[in-house]
Design brief:
three-stranded antiparallel beta sheet, 9 strands, about 270 residues, 11 helices
Length: about 270
């Protein structure tokens, strides 16, 4: 286990003990305690609880994001939610600071998930997103539909740390990067931009995110139904993990970190 992973595992243990609850996400394979998962009546309780060692360790948001992505090899695109990171690292302020530093460096980018009912944000390595741009360019060349050079320019947009927000204005794309309205429409067609609710702006977009959203939604629904069918509305995590998910390819860890981090379920003592 690397030093960074040991730090995160130790911080999980520290926070659990301080809060007095028994749930441990066990993201690096340390011994797991018996856990009760409970469905929430209201969203918003995304507290995570952990154990005490008189240690004050900084969290490592980037290492955790990489873990969440690598630990779920069936992901159609290499992304994770920011709230999943919150479910593992208890200090959200430090998480936000570390992520913001990565965005400013240009090594990671943040995206708004458009189809979500709430404001939910995912993160992806900039290098992985650039591979998506290359895939779109290859499709454009193969289909002989549009100007491939547009994707080269979009590479410059994405790599420019000045434009590291989740959206960008049409004026910037035209005045700073010499794109035309036709070029912007091409980027929308290939799923790299989406029209914003604010006129004259566009969301940066993850291509082909439909499969990801479908599997995530199905997994959420299946687990919540399991909890709601029970008279007590809760279940030991060990028993929950013995259930088979029929409509989602995502593993239980990925889905549980999503449900806990987003406040859809909470943890309680077994």
């Amino acid at each position: 286990m690397s030093a960074r992973k040991r730090r995160i595992a130790a911080e999980q243990s520290l926070y659990n003990n301080q809060q007095g609850k028994s749930y441990e996400p066990d993201v690096f394979g340390t011994r797991r305690k018996r856990v009760m998962m409970r469905a929430n009546k209201q969203q918003g309780d995304d507290e995570f609880d952990q154990h005490d060692d008189d240690l004050q360790l900084e969290s490592d948001a980037i290492t955790t994001a990489e873990f969440l992505i690598k630990n779920n090899p069936k992901l159609s695109i290499p992304i994770c939610f920011i709230h999943q990171i919150y479910s593992i690292l208890p200090n959200n302020t430090i998480v936000d600071r570390e992520l913001q530093q990565a965005f400013k460096k240009g090594t990671w980018r943040k995206f708004h998930i458009i189809s979500a009912l709430e404001d939910e944000f995912i993160v992806i390595k900039t290098s992985d997103y650039c591979q998506m741009i290359d895939q779109a360019r290859a499709e454009c060349v193969k289909d002989k539909d549009g100007d491939p050079r547009v994707f080269d320019i979009f590479h410059d947009v994405v790599k420019d740390a000045v434009y590291n927000e989740v959206s960008i204005s049409k004026d910037v794309l035209i005045s700073k990067f010499d794109l035309t309205e036709k070029n912007i429409f091409q980027l929308v067609t290939y799923g790299l931009l989406l029209p914003h609710v604010q006129i004259g702006h566009y969301w940066f977009s993850i291509r082909k995110q439909g499969s990801f959203i479908s599997n995530l939604s199905n997994g959420r629904v299946e687990i919540l139904r399991i909890l709601k069918r029970r008279h007590t509305k809760d279940i030991m995590e060990k028993l929950l993990r013995q259930k088979k998910l029929h409509k989602s390819i995502f593993n239980f860890d990925f889905l549980l970190h999503d449900l806990v981090g987003s406040g859809r379920v909470s943890n309680s003592d077994g």
